[in-house]
Write a structure and sequence with these properties.
The protein has 147 residues and is α+β, with helices and mostly antiparallel strands. Helices cover 11% and strands 24% of the residues. The chain has helices spanning 48-53, 57-60, 101-106, and strands spanning 21-23, 30-33, 38-41, 70-73, 85-93, 110-116, 127-128, 132-134. It has a five-stranded antiparallel sheet, with no helix packed on it. A three-stranded antiparallel sheet has the order 1-2-3, with no helix packed on it. The protein is elongated.
């Protein structure tokens, strides 16, 4: 016998079925909204502002680069035309990024393992998302800054 699981992508309709709502379990239906850090009631509707702030697990886990993507490693000491071209051969999600302010500001969502195009030698270290760019967009990246 095989079992299949279906993932629902339907948005909540009110606070009661929103994952960001912490229910106080009192007889008045009160709780805490983690989106806005304030008191809320179960019957409050899921508004357009809630929808804009709602992070679905599919949105969080969407990567900019996939396996097989051509990327260039950003090197501030070289001109963009001299940056080495790599192929993405692996990726891993950083689940610790959203734990506190320090990790949010200093880490990226994704880390990538790269391979050179010529010899397909895989690098031994993971490269952060902000250290690479799309192969086609390397000419618009300025790592030194304008000012």
């Amino acid at each position: 016998m095989t079992y299949t699981t279906q993932k629902t992508t339907q948005l909540p309709t009110n606070c009661a079925n929103c994952p960001q709502f912490h229910n106080y379990r009192d007889n008045r239906g009160g709780g805490w909204c983690n989106f806005y850090d304030r008191f809320a009631k179960e019957h409050h509707p899921f508004t357009h502002d809630c929808k804009l702030n709602y992070l679905d697990s599919e949105d969080i886990l969407r990567s900019e680069h996939e396996a097989g993507s051509l990327v260039k490693l950003i090197d501030s000491h070289k001109d963009h035309s001299q940056w080495t071209t790599y192929v993405v051969v692996g990726k891993k999600y950083n689940p610790n990024r959203y734990q506190n302010t320090k990790t949010f500001l200093n880490q990226t969502d994704w880390y990538y393992r790269l391979a050179t195009i010529e010899k397909l030698e895989v690098t031994q270290q993971w490269v952060a998302e902000d250290e690479i760019c799309h192969y086609d967009q390397a000419d618009i990246i300025n790592p030194i800054g304008e000012f």
